[in-house]
Every structure is written in C-alpha cells, then in structure tokens.
Write a structure and sequence with these properties.
heterodimer; A: 287 residues; mainly alpha; ABC transporter involved in vitamin B12 uptake, BtuC; two-stranded antiparallel ribbon; 72% helix; B: 422 residues; alpha/beta; Rossmann fold; 2 domains; four-stranded parallel beta sheet; 16 helices; 17 strands
C-alpha cells in the first residue's frame, strides 16, 4: 500500500511541477525564449499575493483576481520593454537578460520584503484530506493543485488551437517573418504570450505560497523541475508538460520510497532516460 | 632608437622589492594609524540575511559606550568597517581579504553560519590577524576548518554552543514528554543534516544511549517537495517524536503533508527551521507547541558589559524600534561587540597583533549571552555559551518561546512545562 501511496502522491506533486512549467513551456513554444527568471517570477507573484492578502484580507485563492491581472500586465510590459529587444540575436542575449532579471528580482524582493520567510494561510484547506483507501490519504490542497493544473493547461490548449490569438501565437512560432508579412505585429503577440505566461505564474505563485514557506531566494530551486517537466513532455506541448510533471513526480516518489536520498536522483534518472531514448521529449510539437 | 635594457640581476632585485613592498607598507600603516579598526563580516543580503538583520541597530545602540572606550587609561578611537558576505562563502573570504589588506583592520569579527565564519576565520589565520567569531555551532567551525583538537588555531577564537548541547537539550525536552521513545529523524543532504545524522558524531549514538530509537529514512535533498516516504516510514515505526535540522520551507512542506496524510506526532523538535518568530507566524495555529533549541532568549539572566542592558530589555527595545519580534541572533550580535571592546580595553599594545591576540585569549567577560572565557574546553579557541530547549506557544496570535528544558545549563530559568501537540 505504501507503494500505491507513493505513486498517488507523486502524481499529485506532478500537478505542482506542471504548474511551475506551464508558463515556461508556453514562452518557449511561442518565441523559443528560455526564461531563467521564471522561478523568481513565481516567487515575486507569491510576494505580490502576500501583499494583496495582507492589504485586503482576501482569501489567498481569491486574491488571484487582483494578482493575476497585475502579473499579466507586468509580463506584457516586460516583454515589450525589455525581452523583445533580445530576440532574434541568437540564443545568448535572452538567456543573459533573463538571468539578470532573476538577480534583480531576488535582491529587489529582499530589499522590499526582507529575508524573513513568509507563507499564505489558507486555513483548513491546507491540512484537510480524505482517505481514498486505508493508507492512501489525499490532501485537498494537492488535489486542488492538480485540478488547477489540468484546468490551466486545458485553457491554454483551447486558447492556442481555437482562438484568433492562438492562431497568431502559432503563426509567429512557425515563422516570424512570414507572420509579420501577413500583418501580424509579432512584438505585440510576444507580449501577449508573456502576459499569459505570467498569469499562469501568478496561479503557481499563490499555490507555492500556500503550500510552503517562501523567501526571496527560492526561485531558482523551483526552476529545475519545471525545466525537466517541459523537456520530458516534449518542447511546445502543453499536455506533454503535464505528463512530464507527473512522470517526474512519480519517479521521485518511488525513488524516495526506496531511500529519500534517491528521491531527486530518481527524477533526474527518469529525465535522463527520456532524453537518451527520445531526445526531443515524449510528445514534441516543435522540431 | 636605442633600447634600454634592464639587466636580469637588477630586474630580480627590483621585482623582489616591489613584491615585498605591500607587506612592509601594511605593517607600517597598521602601526601608525590613529583609530583602532575593527572589521565585521556578516550576511546582510542573500538567504542568510535574517541572521545579520539587526546588526546595524545593535551597533547604533552601543555607539556611545564604544566612544567612551579607553585602553589602559588612554582614550581610543574605534572605527568599525562592516562588510556584507552576501551569504556567499567566496564573497566572505574576498571581503575579509579586503579588510585585512586594504583597510588594514587590527581585529576581525565574523558571525552567522559556517558559510561566513569559516572563510573569514581562515583568511585571518592565514594573514595573522586576530579574529573572533560566533553564531555557528563550534564543530562545523572547528572541524570544518580541519582543526586539530591537540593544536587548535593560532589567530582565531570562537564562542557558541555545539551539537552535544543540542542533543542534551532535545533529550531534556523529550524525557519530560512521557511518550514512546521512538524518534523520526529528518536530515537533509547538507552540511548540517549530514553532521546531525552521522552515526559516529551525530544524534544516533547519544540517542541510543538515552534509550531512544531513531528512525532515519535517509538524507533528502533540501527544498524537497514531497515527504510522503518519510511520513510512511514514521507511521509504520510508531514514531511519536520528530526531530531534524531543516530549512523553513522544508519543514512547512513536511508539516502540511503530515497533517494531510494523518501523521500526528506528540512532540516535534526541529533545529534551524524554528529559529525566527516570523517563520512561526507563517504557520499560524499549527506552529503552537513546536519545540526547538534556544540559543538565547529574553529570560537569559545576563546583561551587557558595555551598556548594562539586560537580555529582556535589549529584546523589548528591539521590538519597539523595529516592530518585529526579538530573535536569538540579537544577543550574539551584541555580545561579539562586547568581546571586541573588552579586548581593546585590555590589550597591552594596540599596534601589535600578537598583543591583541593575548588579550583575546585572556578574556574573562560576563556578556549578554553568558560568560566568555577561553579555557581550552571543549577545544582550544572555543568557548561555549549556554543552550536550552524551548517551546513556541501562541497567545493572542503572537508567538513566544518558553524555555522548558535546561539539562546542561541550569542557570537558565525554566519558563513552563512542555505541552504535547494536540
């Protein structure tokens, strides 16, 4: 039963990883930009949510009504003002600029919020659970996180393949020049994609803040599993990212059951195996 | 177009002289200076910033007392040069080197975790500059720098407690709990986790000797997302006491998952994660009753040798000034300045590093964290300060650390009885 429990909890953790990774996957899919500052943006969203909750007294999840649009607006401005200038000049400039963004965010948050660790209090939701079967308890919060990951990815998928904005996303992703010739303003499309990515980041940030303590420096640690989930699932494929997160979560859960020292290693091994057998991930959309 | 050749011999001579010049310059400058320069390296930014946070406030509070300091009857001007380690050991070593070579400090101070104290102490030892450090358990400071208990170090002195005090205090807490003597250990794969979990030098030996059975599932990676395996192992073994040395996010993850998965230990005594009241605030009700070691607290029966302020008064004036709850690092931030000023008062010749070192070794001072005197125990260069065991209790939404066990330092007053977790 402990093994079943390890797998079930691993699947739920996979939802968390997928949420960390969805924004990353989206950005990479649309503009081939690897956002090193993604983890720090998640933590920044956590702080924003913390500030909103403390100013208004809203429930952390309700605070998303304010936090998500603010984050999206910031993403739009960030892309238009900074990141657009780095695109089309090779792989290095966006990497360096987002790395710089990561350092600025970390120290900016330290300056404003100090090094004290914080957490958002979601009350009974945090600790409540129900028993699926004896020995397998499912917490409401992990379940809600997994469900939210599903909804977020389904919504992004719908937006990508069934709306005109999504058509523009796909057009600039396939061929920037031709899309521009067709009258698509690629700079604004990129900005919309970043805004969308940061709205997802806001959701991830709020869940991160409810789940555990956060401080200004924990962003990069969150990034690695997000990256691995994206790569395992295949670049540019959102459902693939969810699958990647779940594979990672289950591998880690099973590894930890053998020995906690194997937990992270098992995840990396799963990642390595996928890379070795299918270098482009399990379900690649982008060649 | 005649070329000017330098003969090899002349080149070697002048090169040798220019290489030697900085050394000559430095000793001259150090001797001639009017002010006595004290360099302090601590983390003010980065993940360890919480440790260094109050240092400026502490320094401002003792400014007047320091201005009045004399050396053998003559007035001395003391100048502090504060450097930020940025929570990075390489940066700590770099700024220590700057303080030694560029600022020509007469005395180095450093505090807060091995990541800061060790590189700075190493630089001081190398350069032959006296150095005092604190806020780092003595084993990582001493053995982490490859210290030999038979010989010790020449230039570096340290005051704090050690792992043996932690174990003693924890067992003191557990002995009064009356629960099953089965302890679950959560040790991360980092310097602290490996030291605590080490079968020879860590918790396992002394716990077995005290009659406790330790369930140690193995080392996890810090910033872990999932403690399901550990919780399952603890449930299976009937664990009623949980211990470990964790960072706050890991403890928070564990503590939520424990509730979700129906694991309800009676006593949870964790090091590191439960140090700062702000962390407890973030747990809300679920922080009530957690236990940890107490480095220093308002109830410690000591007062400052510099200003005469008591531990309780220092904490309350900090709370008033900052609007935050007191932290255990306050006492050490203050005490290290006390020791430094005391050394300045007593040194025979302030321009001679050796003389300053002799003054450090001869220290016998009642500070706000307790008596500081390097007696050679547990090793040369290390002086231990008293440690106790405490329980966080929540009253009207505010957390207070109540001392519940003091088996190794009976001079610390007990504030209450241990309550089991509900």
């Amino acid at each position: 039963m402990t093994w079943i429990n390890a797998v079930v909890q691993g699947v739920l953790i996979g939802g968390l990883y997928a949420m960390f990774a969805a924004g990353l996957s989206l950005i990479f899919g649309v503009m081939r930009l690897v956002n090193i500052g993604h983890g720090d943006l998640i933590v920044a969203a956590s702080y924003l949510a913390w500030a909103v909750v403390h100013a208004t007294g809203l429930h952390p999840l309700t605070s998303l009504v304010i936090v998500a649009p603010l984050a999206a607006a910031f993403g739009y401005a960030l892309q238009l003002g900074v990141l657009n200038h780095t695109l089309g000049k090779g792989i290095l400039p966006p990497l360096l600029v987002t790395f710089g963004l990561s350092v600025i965010l970390q120290n900016g948050m330290l300056l404003i919020f100090t090094a004290d660790t914080r957490k958002l209090d979601a009350g009974a939701l945090e600790t409540g659970s129900f028993a699926l079967s004896p020995g397998v308890d499912i917490g409401y919060l992990p379940l809600l996180m997994f469900a939210t990951a599903l909804v977020v990815i389904a919504a992004l998928q719908f937006l990508f393949y069934s709306t005109s904005l999504g058509r523009e996303f796909r057009a600039v992703s396939d061929d920037r020049e031709v899309a521009a010739l067709m009258g698509i303003d690629d700079r604004r499309v990129y900005a919309s994609a970043m805004a969308l990515s940061l709205a997802v980041v806001a959701v991830a940030g709020v869940f991160l803040a409810i789940r555990s303590n956060f401080d200004p420096f924990m962003g990069p640690g969150r990034l690695i599993f997000g990256f691995e989930a994206v790569i395992i699932g295949g670049l540019g494929n959102l459902w693939g990212t969810l699958a990647g997160g779940v594979i990672l979560g289950v591998a880690q859960g099973v590894g930890a059951e053998i020995n906690p020292g194997w937990q992270v290693l098992a995840g990396h091994i799963a990642f390595f195996l996928v890379l070795a057998v299918r270098p482009r991930g399990l379900f690649p959309r982008i060649s | 177009m005649g070329k000017h050749y330098i003969s090899r011999r002349a080149f070697v001579k002048s090169a040798g002289a220019s290489l030697a010049a900085p050394a000559l310059l430095s000793s001259r400058a150090r001797a001639a200076g009017g002010a006595f320069k004290i360099g302090l390296v601590a983390p003010f930014t980065g993940p360890l910033a919480a440790f260094g946070e109050a240092q400026d406030w502490i320094l401002a509070g003792v400014k007047d007392a320091i201005a009045k300091t004399g050396n053998n009857g003559k007035p001395v001007k003391i100048e502090f040069i504060i450097k930020d380690s940025q929570s990075n050991p390489n940066r700590a070593a770099e700024v220590a080197g700057e303080l030694i070579n560029k600022d020509q400090v007469n005395l180095l101070l450093t505090k807060d975790t091995p990541d800061t104290t060790n590189p700075v102490s190493d630089q001081a030892e190398l350069a032959g500059i006296p150095c005092i450090s604190t806020n780092c358990p003595w084993q990582p400071w001493f053995f982490g720098r490859k210290g030999d208990p038979a010989k010790g170090f020449d230039w570096t002195y340290h005051f704090f407690w050690g792992l043996e005090d932690i174990i003693g205090s924890y067992v003191g807490i557990w002995d009064q709990s009356g629960v099953q003597k089965v302890v679950g250990g959560l040790f991360p794969n980092d310097a602290d986790g490996n030291a605590w979990g080490d079968p020879k030098l860590g918790l396992p030996g002394p716990l077995a000797a005290a009659g406790y059975k330790l369930i140690d599932p193995g080392r996890y990676q810090p910033l872990n997302n999932d403690f399901t395996a550990q919780i399952a192992a603890f449930k299976k073994a009937g664990v009623e006491i949980v211990t470990g040395v964790m960072i706050p996010p890991d403890f928070a993850t564990f503590w939520s998952q424990a509730a979700q998965q129906g694991f309800k230990p009676k006593v949870v005594t964790v090091g590191k994660a439960l140090l700062f009241p702000t962390t407890l605030d973030s747990f809300g009700e679920r922080g009530d009753g957690l236990t940890t070691e107490v480095w220093w607290a308002p109830s410690y029966p000591y007062k400052s040798s510099l200003t005469g302020v008591s531990a309780a008064d220092l904490c309350s004036s900090y709370e008033k000034a900052s609007g935050k709850t007191w932290t255990a690092t306050l006492g050490f931030s203050h005490a290290i300045l006390e020791v430094a000023v005391d050394v300045v008062k007593r040194a025979k010749n302030l321009n001679d590093p050796k003389s300053i070192l002799d003054a450090i070794a001869a220290t016998d001072l009642q500070t706000i964290v307790g008596p500081i005197k390097w007696t050679g125990k547990p090793v040369k260069n290390v002086c231990k300060t008293p440690l106790a065991g405490g329980q966080w209790t929540r009253k009207n939404g505010k957390f207070d650390l109540v001392i519940v066990a003091d088996p190794l330092s009976p001079q610390i007053p007990i504030g209450g009885k241990l309550k089991l977790l509900g």
